[in-house]
Amino acid sequence: MLDQAAHQAASLLYTALISVGALAAFIGGARTHAYKRRRRAQKRLQQKWGKPRPASSLRVPGRRLAVVSTAAIPWMTGTAVNPTLRAAYMAHCTDLKVILVVPWLARSDQALIFPNQRTFERPAEQEACMREWIKKRTGLSPDFEIVWYPGRYDRTMLGIFPVGDLTEIVEADARADAVILEEPEHLTWFHHGPRWTDRFGHVVGIIHTSYRELSKRNAGLVMAGVSSLLNSWLCAIHCHKVIKLSDAVQSLPREVTCCVHGAAPGFVTAGAGKTHAPEGGGRRFSKGAYCLAKVVWGKGWEELLELLEYQGRIARARGEAPAHVDAFGDGEALASVQGKARAAGLALAFHAKRDHLDPSLADYQVFINASTSDVVATTSVEALAMGKWLICARHACNDWAASFSNALVYRTPNEFVAHLTRALAHEPPPLPEEELRRLGWEAATERCLDAASIGEHEWPTRLSGAQEALLWGTYNTFTGLEPVRLAVCAGANTLHAPETLTAYDPNPNPGGSWLDALRPRLQLSLGSSALRFFWASTGDCTDDWRAERRPIQAAAKRS
């Protein structure tokens, strides 16, 4: 009920903003050249409304396809890794002319997110690093272009955002006629300029992150409702079609659900090496269970601690030792998670962050992923390809992974304990060839080509087109105002792109966002049973603030 009420409240708020914004747009921009150009474009579209628009496919040879990403290698995040691999395999498996469009960061921002504070002086240096990584990861040397756009890393939102109008860069430098927007809502939160669908004839968005779930966890149900509505609008405004990796994501206009990610050949090769016992006999896997993830609350660490605490109580009641689990990763909440694990007396050992293909991880036979905030967990897909057991929760984000024979899915703490006991006692059977094929990026590319096709009946309708044009005009008006941009974390001096790619400097920031100004800040969280205020002194919101207790934790306590 609270969720529904929050969504209704957010709808009323944004309806009011639309009215104000429409008036502002009429008064402030009706006479501008940009407005007149938009009106001419709208009239051309109106002339076509009476005729069905022909279907469009990415399988047509020779099309120029831009894959636009919010992150770039060597940042080893899923939103950098998967778009890079998608571009590589699109270029390798199809006759498309593929262009990967990625952000270029100032060196101060690079040092914040790249491994070992690595930095690059020029885009050419980072491009060489990216191509070397692709060849090492896939064995391919695909022929595709890399185009850069100026970006900035936001320390509050922990993400990279474009500086200036990205559509202009993609149109001028990539010369694309079809576009895949990796995280379309993320790319357009602060976008001021033409709609992507006005500049390009075939625009497909791929949703990587459940921002609604993250908003709910970090700021309560009201902000979850606002986030849900805003992201739905932005996808409608800028995409002809939206691909959801799983139904863990909110409903979106013109959506289709399909997992278009895969595992790189290195993982399949690692799994093939574990199909037979060693020559001298013995076990194929010599180590037990592990988990690998960025250590931030909201990535499954709270759930994992609760489950392992419950498993430890069950084991001690039976006179057995708790299961030992090795954890690999780093992140803002590392010290907090370690402290919780020590306080609970868990047999959880923390190790430095490692690449999932690191040889030291090959001998583990059980991979645990307790997260329910992912859309699709890349590490789970990789673990399956490596021939391991996967233990994961019954959740929409795991539906695709759960279709494989080595996936052990739990709904309760008791099922988790049973699966962990079984997986540690028995080695996983080798995956069938068909399942290995489905896990690969070649199959993922075929799924993407099918899902990204747009049939005659799938284009925006006349009514939805008019609604989306109104929404865009309103939103575009607000994102063109510097005070508004400063207030909502868009960053100072980010409305227009710098004169040269490397000219943007994020450090001289005279304004800063209101989110930065309110740290430490008072936040509001709406839970199922209580209304709580909490103080986040560092911006690292731990489980201490959560108003809702999870079903798994409640079940564990009852037991």
Q: What secondary-structure arrangement, pairings included, does this model have?
A:
Blueprint: H1 2-29, H2 33-48, E1 64-68, H3 78-93, E2 97-104, H4 107-113, H5 123-138, E3 145-154, E4 159-162, H6 166-174, E5 178-182, H7 184-188, H8 196-199, E6 202-207, H9 211-219, H10 221-238, E7 241-244, E8 255-257, H11 265-272, E9 287-292, H12 301-317, E10 325-328, H13 334-344, E11 348-351, E12 364-369, H14 378-385, E13 389-393, E14 407-410, H15 413-425, H16 433-439, H17 441-451, H18 462-479, H19 482-487, H20 514-517, E15 521-526, E16 531-536, H21 551-558
Parallel strand pairs: 1-2, 1-5, 2-3, 5-6, 6-7, 7-8, 9-10, 9-12, 10-11, 12-13, 13-14
Antiparallel strand pairs: 3-4, 15-16
Helix pairs in contact: 1-10, 1-18, 9-10, 10-18, 11-14, 12-13, 12-15, 12-21
- Average pLDDT value? 82
| Biggest sheet, spatial arrangement of strands | 4-3-2-1-5-6-7-8
Query: Ranges with pLDDT <50 over ≥5 residues?
Result: 12-32, 510-559
SS field, number of helical segments: 21
Radius of gyration: 24 Å
- Major beta-sheet overview: 8 strands, mixed
Distance between the termini: 29 Å
Percent helix, as a range, is 40-55%
Strand content: 15-25%
Rough shape? Answer: globular
Structural class: alpha/beta
Number of strands: 16
CATH class of the largest domain: Alpha Beta
CATH topology title of the largest domain: Rossmann fold
**Number of domain units:** 2
CATH architecture of the largest domain: 3-Layer(aba) Sandwich
Organism: Elliptochloris bilobata
Protein name: Digalactosyldiacylglycerol synthase
Transmembrane segments: 12-30
Main location: membrane
